[in-house]
Amino acid sequence: MSLQNFLNQAISSWMSQDGPDSDIVLSSRVRLARNIEQYKFPTVFSKEEAEEVLELFKNIFHDKQFDSMGQLQMLVMDELEPIHKRVLVEKHLISPNLAEHSISGGCLLSENEELSIMINEEDHVRIQCLFPGFQLKEALYTTNRLDDWIEKEVDYAFDENRGYLTSCPTNIGTGLRASVMMHLPALVMSQQMNRIIPAINQLGLVVRGTYGEGSEAQGNIFQISNQITLGKSEEDIVEDLISVVSQLIDQERSAREAIYKTSQIQLEDRVYRSYGILTHSRIMESKEAAKCLSDLRLGIDLNMIEDVSRNILNELMILTQPGFLQQYSGKALRPEERDVRRATLIRERLKLEEDSQKRTEDDGV
After folding, report:
1. What is the pLDDT of residue 296?
2. Average pLDDT rounded to a whole number, residues 226-235
3. How many structural domains compose the chain?
């Protein structure tokens, strides 16, 4: 398979499209945790009950269309190859827990991959909406409409005082987790993130790596999300997160401007060295790739590099993960083989970008 054809099949809309403030905010996500009233929670239910819940959602929602996002297709975890489940995790469409530890788990996925409904994860239902850029309000609006659409067919476990009942007490109430993925290289370079992260935590928010709890913030990419789900409305939770993220956007832009003014040559050297490594390396470990891609994206955002798409970071931070590398190769790869394939894929992707730019210039002549 050619890289272009692979990209056409592999890239979700949030990776390839621009959104508001997408120079800093890569994506916005809203997730709702729900349980079905007549079944035990997944932490204690039997395999037979799990299969009933999965079959219920498959019968009601498989092949049904929600708005313009296309039909929902049911993916049953037990029927997928391990590599395919890993790719879904790497694309942020399902959780590692659903992929590896769920009982009779499944996922209803929209055609454009903006909507994902996980079945039998920690809760019976995890409804998720993922948009490009800074679109938390839009994600909340869409997720709530999808939630209402589902609730027409099933009865949720709900208490008048406690709100939506969930397996984990930290999700009780609204059951809402809102998050944004942010690229914050200048705040890291200026060593401001060490001060900012504790301040964010005191506001009832949490800062994590790209893949959530327990993951590392590689490539200067951080996930900011709410911790509090009880005692506030969904709108208030999202507004609080928007307020903090807006301040982070302003701080990152100010930090970029300051670094560019005071250390332009050093910054340009860093960006172009990383660009050279990406375009010429034959072996590339994941951490090095993340660092170099972060530098390249910063150079693009500061108009140092004009012939590479801004969304290159969104794409390559996913495409260079182990699952994608093995899917593209069509076989299982040892770690050292993945490092070689990672370097090759990055070179090929940047070459595609260069060829696209040349065609655009030729068409303009």
Report:
1. 95
2. 90
3. 2
